[in-house]
């Protein structure tokens, strides 16, 4: 990478994305693009050369990044390798045919031959090669061919049985073959068909049993952690449930085996085999009955180096066991070298690097030299089913330009005695050695470093015990890998990515030509990153997300790791949770101390960016002990939003995401063993006082309910002390149009017979509704409990004519209907409400509810 670009002052503004790039979010991949924006990865690269990707920021400055993601392995020869570009140009200049279906295609022919030679070099077997347009398509082709192969094996057995049936009939008729004593009884037991009496009967049941036994769905084997693509069939073989689960219903049976576990593989062979009876006549002059087994396994798919699963090279001993098992049971072994093949591991075939002898090899990625979209399935000729050439083909495969570019890529990789592969081997070994030194330096940050050649994985420790709440949350939500990728891009101008199915592993796949100094630069950047993580300095980790990156900074990293905020509540205590949110962005610094280094407006920006993404987290827990000695552990669960964020969303009626956050906060409280959850701040309002929360199994309360309950308690206590007999009292609820006083009035109406609701002018409707609800509750109480047992308003109105005349079915219309004595409510705009000394209460309206209902019937 040119030095001037690397050292250029960083201008915070991600790429000056063109309108077209912005359309990417709107029309192409909305969710992914939004996530990129949150992570500060919304870059539109404008140029790619060798190991460098370039983009321009909003100020028009050019930035260059060392690309260690390398097109997920496709850029083994770097971006836009000059010889490949020249080959592509030549193809265009020569007007080479892209589409010439149903003709002989020289480029495809030569490429197939070259790949077959490469495979034969290791397996000793010549191949037939099917060309495809993408990795997953080649995997689909392998699935289909394996099933054709299995079906062909079955057909052969059935054809053999059919021929044998004829032979048996003929020979028994000729008298050259006898039916031994007890033969029919034994066959009947095999076929679960009692009462076989003659040869016709026997052959009929035998055929039926064999056909039934063979009428099974094929089973595929794959390894845990595997990634074979995301199309409908390939995704069935991809272990990660995130990709596979939504499409399980469209699939076929796959058994996932733990890699390296030979006994598990052998067990699955047993489990997928079934027995069927065979009648033999070849051995002598009488029919013989045998039991045969057939394996229903169509194929075993394996990556020589699991890439997306976290960069795990296959254990050579296990590779040998795979071959033994496949030979014994006769299923093909499919090596998926889409990411690892073509020399990246130091061998043309990654299978060779791990000692695996496959029957099929799938190439893609580097086969196109980083320019063409091309994949190939090479299949040992003896396993190829000729009709497959007709059954699997696609419009875009075998085009001359792609094939020629792939041929050139193979030539570059293999020429000069395989110098490119040698570079992968040597640079990879040195790089791994340096990374291992770092792992030893930061053992609590780096969990492992592994790889083969220039396919390298750096695994970080998850951080369940960190003192940093933000780090804990990022780790728990498996976002840490993405944030690290953002840090490396903005703070060190290095582009990396985490593996798709192993969120804590960064995958590094530079080109074979990468400068050793660039690899060293990555090691230095990783060293600083490890220090930041170790010191739990989240400001340093995330400041690039709000444009505060200081590329290449080397200064001291402040240590926040000793600040422990999260006290462990004793496990034995009863647990309750309180949900809340930040009142303002600065409060995030109380939650995450290192963020106090961030200026307020940047904190606000950080909030705005992350509030939809970060899940609620337990921010604090403490023990509350009452005077009775009982202890309760209170957990404070914080939604990472501010009151302003919420208010903004409430104004925009964009509440679904917040409701989902509240749901997951309640779920978290439940998982943490809490039995009661209080919804604080705006969360109660957003959920209509907890009413819209779906998560069950916990008691929910809101701040208002708590206050209401405490208010009632206080009133009861006060009146007791003042010697007031509630059964004779008259209650005035001031501000009864509001939630709190309205609720007090409703609760106390169970004890007090006469209630006056007081509210401001304009609140008459609301007051009437409260009055009506009080009456309705009283009505229900009268209807459900024996007469004479009622207190409060119910006691006052029981026995009135209105109540006696009101049928239950009309009660349902209670609130709106005039039938309830509520219509007797009067509203007067009169003198100040009793006790009111505020301007707000002057000219109040008084709604006196049950007083007028007292006339006895
Ligand atoms: N198998 C492996 C090992 C892969 O790495 C990939 C791509 N990441 C695929 C299959 C799928 O290939 P594609 O994305 O071209 O469909």
Structural class by SSE content? alpha/beta
* Attached small molecules: 4'-deoxy-4'-aminopyridoxal-5'-phosphate
Uncertain stretches of 5 or more adjacent residues: 1-13, 814-857
Using the alpha-carbon principal axes, give the shape: globular
How many angstroms does the end-to-end distance come to? 97 Å
Radius of gyration: 38 Å
Kindly report the spatial arrangement of strands forming the biggest sheet.
Answer: 4-14-13-12-9-5-6
Q: Helical stretch count?
A: 29
Range of helix content: 40-55%
Number of strands: 28
Strand portion: 15-25%
Which whole number gives the mean pLDDT?
88
Give the oligomer, counting copies of the same chain as homo and different chains as hetero: single chain
Largest sheet: 7 strands, mixed
List the keywords.
binds 4'-deoxy-4'-aminopyridoxal-5'-phosphate, 17% strand, disordered C terminus, globular, alpha/beta, 857 residues, 28 strands, 7-stranded mixed β-sheet
Outline the structure in words.
By secondary structure, the chain is of the alpha/beta class. Helices cover 41% and strands 17% of the residues. It is built from 29 helices and 28 strands. It has a seven-stranded mixed beta sheet with strand order 4-14-13-12-9-5-6, sandwiched between helices. Strands 21-22-20-23-24 form a five-stranded mixed beta sheet. A four-stranded mixed beta sheet has the order 1-2-3-17, with helices on one face. The chain is globular. The N and C termini lie far apart (97 Å). Mean pLDDT is 88; it is low at 1-13 and 814-857. Bound molecules: 4'-deoxy-4'-aminopyridoxal-5'-phosphate.
